[in-house]
Amino acid sequence: MDKSRIRVRYAPSPTGSLHVGGVRTALFNWLFARKNGGVFVLRIEDTDLERSTEGSVDQLKRSLRWIGLDWDEGPEVEGPHAPYRQTERFDLYRETAKKLLNSGAAYRDFATPEEMAEFREAARAERRQPIYKGGEYRDMDPAEAERRAEAGEPFTVRFKTPGEGRTVVEDEIRGPVTFENENLEDFVLMKSTDTPTYNFAAAVDDARMEISHVIRGDDHLSNTPRQILIYNALSYGLPAFAHVPQVLGPDKKKLSKRHGAASVEDFAAQGYLPEALFNYLALLGAGYAADEEIFAPDELAERFRLDRVSGNPAVFDEKKLRAINSVYLRRQTSEELAMIAAPILAEAGAASAAELEEDMPRLTRIMALLRDRLSTTAEIPAMAGYFYGGEVEYDPAEFEKQFGKEFVREAFPELVDRLEALPEWTEVAIEKAVRDLAAKKDKGARHLIHPLRFAVTGRTVSAGLFETMELLGHERSLLRARKAVEEMERLPKPIG
User: Fold this and answer.
1) Could you tell me whether strands 213-217 and 240-244 are parallel, antiparallel, or unpaired per DSSP bridges?
2) Omega of the bond leading into 83 within 30 degrees of 0 (cis)
3) Which of 164, 176, 382, 461 lies at a 20 to 30 A Cα distance from 185?
4) Residue of 47, 14, 23, 3 lying closest to 205 (CA atoms)
5) Active-site residue 405, yes or no?
6) Cβ 422 vs Cβ 430: under 8 Å
7) Is residue 17 classed as helix, strand or coil in its secondary structure?
């Protein structure tokens, strides 16, 4: 492999959000380029004028940058093969189409929609595939075709697909894939609107941008023989092709929003760190050793092998992603986690941005306490929100379960008095007060710890209670504990 000429591209259509399958394909291209000292090109294939939007272009670039993918050539970076948006390259496609017309490899097709409908209907009636080979227009005298075109008659430019022989795609992942030319119709190069089709623009751009390896989703495999025919007709050297299988949900169906998340922005909103999503998707179906899981991007690039990519669809395992995400969260310093948590807590309404900014040392301690319990940053409001504000709301059924027993009804007010009288508010002092009272009552400390946790947090599960109460502070903790005493007095008669 001549590493000096490795050039790959990621070429999305800006018609929606960047989905997991697309970003994994981008990652494989990026990893291959970085491993081989090559060039990673971003090209925007926006020839679908009705569906492409500027908002989608911005979202694509934003999502790629968020996950950590930088491009060596492309929009905003530019490069020797600019422009990198297909709508800015229409003149090139028109010139190339003329070359194919002049060489006889393509022809003008004047078939009307009605004629095409009749062709398809006849094929159905005869129970054969509607493989269109141009009819009378394929071999029309070029001068006559040009005269009709200049007269304003609508036409498309079609490629003259051979009627016999085979086109073989030498795929780097799945091996040779053979297509019978007789089953390939005369496909359109230029639409009647004088704009290019996907197959034509992609083939021309890959050749002109000197792409050495076309690594893309396997939904494009059926396009590849057409593009090879275009390459050959223009005397372009073929790139290597590698078609990456799609990503499926646990039900073995194409990953979509019904599985919980599908786009990069979905995963960001659900609290995944970009480094974790990068790490997980880079491993997904890439053939790394089973015991290899957590790697930095440069380590992943060093280990990436295109010939190890599985030819089978990859199944997305969100549990695995959550596990990897939790590792990356634990690697954050307490200060870094506090910076992540502050805007999340403010948006959730747990505290104002000003309050959080003024009390960052406390938030830093809170995040140090919670770090090992987090799987995603989306859990932060539920796990840290009760450290802010005043009283908490109690679930009535859970409150009765925690405070309905006779021992708790009798001992909890005394515990609150002891806590209120503490000369210092530390986790050690709080724990001693709880355990001393439990021992005095000849009960296990858990009989007081569980209701106290519920009283001060509104939850049955939290980080260590005594550290939590120290960070809650004396005033907030006692406010909530006193409220629990008041609520307890409204309960029915103790149940023993």
Assistant:
1) parallel
2) yes
3) 176
4) 47
5) no
6) yes
7) coil
| Residue 108, beta-bridge partner list | 157
Token code pair at residue 178: 């053979």
Question: For 130, which DSSP code?
Answer: -
- Contacts (Cβ under 8 Å, ≥6 apart) of 250: 259, 315, 316, 317
Pairing of strands 247-248, 314-315: parallel
Rounded CA separation 463/341 (Å): 16
The pTM of this model reads: 0.89
- Start-end of H helices in 359-473: 360-370, 380-384, 396-403, 406-420, 427-440, 446-457, 465-472
3-state secondary structure 161-207: CCCCCEEEEEECCCEEEEEEHHHCCCCEEECCCCCECHHHHHHHHHH
Catalytic residue among 98, 99, 253, 257: 257
What tokens were used for 204?
């021309």
Instruction: Give the CA distances from residue 208 to residues 93, 101, 227, 231, in Å, rounded to whole numbers and listed in that order.
Output: 11, 19, 13, 11
- Rounded Cα gap, residues 350 and 324, in angstroms: 27
**pLDDT digit string (tens) for 64-116?**
999 999 999 999 999 999 999 999 999 999 999 999 999 999 999 999 999 99
SS3 26: helix
Mean pLDDT of the chain, nearest integer: 94
Tokens of 244: 């990456």
Would you tell me how many other CB atoms lie within 10 Å of the CB of residue 218? 20
Backbone torsions φ then ψ of 159, nearest 5 degrees: -85, 140
